Amino acid sequence: EWNKAAFAAKSMDEVMKALGGGSPEKSDAVTLKAPDIAENGAVVPVGIITTLKATHMAILVEKNPNILAGYFELPAGTEPFVTTRVKMGQTSNVYAVVKADGKWYSAAKEIKVTLGGCGG
Fold first, then answer.
1. 89: Cβ–Cβ under 8 A, 6 or more apart, which residues?
2. In terms of CB atoms within 10 Å, which end of the chain has fewer, N or C?
């Protein structure tokens, strides 16, 4: 079922609360694959890889109007890897958030945008 509150949230704390968790713990077991510079903010390739037994993954873009850019539920036995493209209106920190064993873990990276994609 679509989590409307999480996708409508305007802050990191609101997103995590809507997803049923607190602040995620930084973890070396979570890897965010994304370019350092996105020449076109309308199509920024982003991926998450983890060695954890993930049940959920999310991509958050801190400076977007709606922070939650993608949310994925992983069925049992699924490889803990997702990839997609997100829109970014400006340079921002991007977070890969992974739920495993009932806790949230994260990795972050700043992506510089040279041409905006969210109304830019």
1. 41, 63, 64, 65, 113, 116, 117, 118, 119, 120
2. N
Q: β-strands 25-26, 103-113: how paired?
A: parallel
* Contact in structure between 56 and 82 (CB atoms under 8 Å): no
pLDDT for 109 beyond 70: yes
Residue type at position 36:
D
With cut-offs at 50, 70 and 90, classify the pLDDT of residue 120: very low
User: Model pTM greater than 0.70?
Assistant: yes
pLDDT band at 116 (very low <50, low <70, confident <90, very high): low
Q: CA 107, 20, 53, 67: dihedral to nearest 10 degrees?
A: -30
